[in-house]
């Protein structure tokens, strides 16, 4: 004999007061991030939310990056998310980083291919991984450095995207060392000229305008 349908009235159903806001914020985050796999991304979202970690959420909706040589799924917005999640540590564990990468619905094989550019065993300096990610976005060293400046800057979006010269020089040396077509001498001449320009302002910061103007002169 079938059981009778259970009847509920509004007074019997308890809705946690925080639930509507949680679902609202989740929906807005999903729309802004546009994950390739909503279920996979949702698992990462609520896992981060429950543990108090930075959420895997983009700052805004973004268009696909046209400069990528192949469609890796990686965007500047997703690199920003990883930066928020990992930049509090100088070195990051590769297993943890691969997990975060996967929760952003990015192909694991692309993560491993990225690490082949500078193989390491258990951990990697975060700024170096970020630099490798920026190089995957762009087809040139200049484009990679542009992405890096835009991710690291504290300037408002659309501003000069300034970062400390020492950070810029460290990453530029690192990426240029991975490019067999760029000599150490060429790198040092360029950075020396750039440093002279930065020091004339006495703030130790370099912006995109400094970077690209000097590149055109050389």
TrEMBL record:
It is found in: Cell projection, Cilium, Flagellum. Belongs to the ropporin family. The keyword Iron does not apply. Keywords: Cell projection, Cilium, Flagellum. This is Ropporin-1-like protein. GO terms for cellular component: motile cilium. Its main location: other. The keyword Flavoprotein does not apply.
